[in-house]
Write a structure and sequence with these properties.
Length: 486
């Protein structure tokens, strides 16, 4: 008898921590369930509309027992009305929800603040969700935010989501490790977030309204985020499709199709762009490649097919910023540009003095021209679109290092570091090791030498690979037509 009694408490404990599925069908049921969840529990939302949902989840999951909140039938649980979700516990996974028909009060929301989904904790995950033209409030759709104690969320993953038809200001996704842009205080902590296999298509808005993704706030802060395998198709919210505003981020194998903007290394040195594809499939508008501020970057194995480029940027594939070092418009200098391919890029492959007159007006003699950029094993095929290899001011092309580059369609006889040919020369791992300033970023499992020593073979991403698995077609037709009528 004593033996039986001795095991009863442990049996009772095992029962109370056993993971369970909790099925809900109303907004209040969901709120109630979230207040009682335990590690390993799954809350299943039945088909229907969850209106005016103000959900805050504070319970923690664990690495092997995440707390999951998901649609029972992905795409059939709709979040609408005056809704917002806060993930304040670690290891929470939100999945399969459709955000549309919102009605938040615009006066209660602001740019660079919390998003519709706000993450304040570590190791959280948002997947398989669709956000469509939610409402008139100016805010992001997903954000990571510092909580009241100043905790910086880390190791979160946003994947296989779609963001379509956003007509309000602020970026679609904001990743924050400081509360505001500042030169004071300690650098923002590394975030180690990942955004992968997501789909972005959003129409233009007036002014500096917010693009697809912002990573950090200012150049002294650490990002260490991986942005990979995302599809940006007519992501036209503003000229900065992605604005990278922190150090040590990696942009890998993303596809940009018909985007009236650029992938921007806006603030922060030591950033990496590998195996990204930039395509203009029509000439309805001018489309962009990359715009580079700062130093110590690696830009390699990217592909540019842009028969019509951006007039306001200066008609090129990659733009290297003029300005003072380490400033709001930091000078581009001291970096490696290796094994990129430019096919039928209107204007020039490289613009070494974009918006130079504007920078002179703003900074006077403090504005420098880009210098000490190493260009190795790049390939240009002009197709009567590319008129010259670079655009320069005051002969600053002579202040770069050119080696082993190849051009077809433009006679480069006698130009140091360039030769005529119909294919790139290629580069070995040994050669890469000599020219790369570093071969990896802390917290990101990627060997840059291994990536760059393999010629780009990736095909452009498409909607079947990115976005929610349950969504065959996205609402609206801006991506297809390029015409938006509000």
């Amino acid at each position: 008898m004593k033996r039986i009694l001795s095991i009863l408490p442990s049996l009772a404990f095992a029962t109370c921590v056993m993971a369970e599925n909790i099925t809900v069908g109303t907004t209040q049921d969901l709120v109630n369930a979230a207040a009682t969840v335990k590690p390993g529990d799954t809350i299943l939302l039945t088909d229907g509309t969850y209106r005016d949902l103000r959900l805050t989840v504070t319970a923690d999951g664990t690495g092997d027992k995440m707390i999951t909140i998901k649609a029972q039938n992905p795409g059939k649980a709709y979040i609408s009305g005056n809704s917002a979700i806060e993930l304040r516990g670690d290891y929470i996974h939100l999945s399969g929800l459709y955000f549309k028909d919102g009605s938040r009060n615009p006066s209660e929301w602001k740019t660079h603040g919390p998003g519709i989904v706000s993450i304040y904790a570590d190791h959280c995950e948002v997947s398989d969700c669709l956000f469509y033209d939610f409402d008139n409030a100016n805010s992001s759709y997903i954000s990571t935010n510092l909580d009241e104690t100043g905790h910086v969320p880390q190791y979160c993953h946003i994947h296989h989501c779609a963001f379509v038809g956003k007509t309000t200001q602020d970026q679609v996704i904001n990743l924050n490790n400081t509360k505001k842009k500042t030169l004071e205080g300690e650098p923002g902590k590394p975030m180690y977030h990942r955004i992968s296999y997501c789909y972005f298509s959003n129409p233009p808005k007036k002014g500096n309204a917010g693009g697809g993704i912002r990573v950090g706030y200012w150049r002294k802060d650490y990002g260490r985020c991986l942005i990979d395998h995302n599809l940006f198709e007519r992501q036209d919210s503003e000229a900065e499709i992605v604005t990278s505003k922190s150090m040590e981020n990696v942009y890998f194998a993303n596809t940009f199709i018909n985007c009236r903007g650029t992938l921007n290394f806006r603030h922060g040195d030591k950033q990496v762009a590998l195996n990204n594809i930039f395509i203009g499939s029509d000439e309805m508008y001018g489309y962009g490649g990359m715009y580079i501020w700062g130093s110590n970057h690696i830009i390699g194995n990217n592909f540019f097919y842009l028969p019509k480029t951006m007039k306001d940027r200066g008609y090129a594939g990659i733009y290297f910023n003029c300005g003072p070092k380490a400033s709001e418009h930091a000078l581009a200098y001291d970096m490696v540009v290796v094994s990129n391919t430019f096919i039928a890029v209107q204007g020039t492959a490289f613009n070494l003095a974009p918006m130079y007159d504007r920078r002179l007006k703003a900074f006077g003699d403090a504005a420098e021209l880009p210098h000490d950029i190493t260009f190795v094993n790049n390939y240009i095929s002009s197709h009567n679109k590319t008129k010259s290899i670079w655009y320069e001011e005051k002969g600053n092309s002579a202040n770069q290092k050119w080696e082993g580059n190849v051009c077809s369609g433009i006679d480069v006889t006698g130009i140091k570091g360039w030769e005529n040919g119909t294919a790139p020369k290629g580069i070995t791992a040994e050669e890469l090791t000599k020219i790369l300033p570093y071969t990896s970023i802390e917290g990101i499992d990627m060997d840059f030498v291994k990536v760059l020593s393999t010629p780009l073979q990736d095909k452009p991403l498409n909607k079947k690979i990115t976005g929610p698995s349950w969504c065959d077609e996205y609402p609206g037709n801006y991506a297809e037509t390029g015409i938006f009528a509000q």
